[in-house]
Amino acid sequence: MTHSIPASSAAALHLALEAVEVVAGYGARTILHGLDLAVAPGEIYALLGANGAGKTTTLGLFLGFVRPSSGRVRVNGIDPGVDPTRARRQLAYIPENVALYEHLSARENVAYLLDLAGEKQDARAIGEALSTAGLDSAAYERRVSGFSKGMRQKVSIALALARKVPALLLDEPTSGLDPQATAEFSRLLGVLRAQDVAILMVTHDLLGAAEVADRIGFIDGGTLIDEATASGAERFDVRALHRRYAAQGTLP
Ligand SMILES: Nc1ncnc2c1ncn2[C@@H]1O[C@H](COP(=O)(O)OP(=O)(O)OP(=O)(O)O)[C@@H](O)[C@H]1O
């Protein structure tokens, strides 16, 4: 399969996330059967597929948790199978349910998680990251234990911004978000894209993906079966995509 990386950006010459003909799985069980997927800096890629299609396994590939038996995986040019620590330094991973230190404030979480990543930053830089991530300033010093999913995501995104990572992996970011929080989340992804972050987002939400993604990929049985690229004012023909992929069980 050929990839239609946006040619407008010089940065597109280099891929932040790349999987080429990847075969991978768990033990003797193969889940990914020759997966081809690439995300350029400043691109939002939404990966859709039925339950068990291999979406989370694909994220695990870039994180170095899932080792390919053949094929090529690169994160900003680094092979996570060979050097997972260095590969993970290029990434921020935001799981469906963001885990934070519940008794620490938003600011303390970012400071502490930065510390753990060996990337200490001053209070001003952390405040700026929280502000860019769209967290209400009244919440900076509050314990995160009472935070909503949307607020937790903002803390994670502030951490990604402070770390200045080139790539962001998101697993089901909009499930359980209300429409306003979903719209705010989409706006945030736009901010990250403008900073040339490569974003790979796993989702079941075709409509949400169509609003924010530059490309949508469909995975079935561990293989990328199709890709659609945003174009024109309408961006994607959501109805046609839905008809095509819902019928074969790739969409809920
Ligand atoms: N750690 C694991 N060990 C063994 N099998 C696993 C493991 N994790 C996932 N699987 C299996 O791999 C297959 C693909 O799972 P994966 O989580 O990648 O799918 P998915 O597309 O993310 O699905 P969902 O939409 O349900 O999250 C499934 O059959 C799942 O049971």
From TrEMBL:
Keyword ATP-binding found = yes
Recite the UniProt keywords alphabetically: ATP-binding, Cell membrane, Membrane, Nucleotide-binding, Transport
Give the ABC transporter domain ranges. 17-246
The GO terms describing molecular function are: ATP binding; ATP hydrolysis activity
Q: Would I find Transmembrane helix among this entry's keywords?
A: no
Q: Which SUPFAM superfamilies match?
A: P-loop containing nucleoside triphosphate hydrolases
This chain belongs to the protein called ABC transporter ATP-binding protein
Q: What is the lineage of its organism?
A: Bacteria, Pseudomonadati, Pseudomonadota, Betaproteobacteria, Burkholderiales
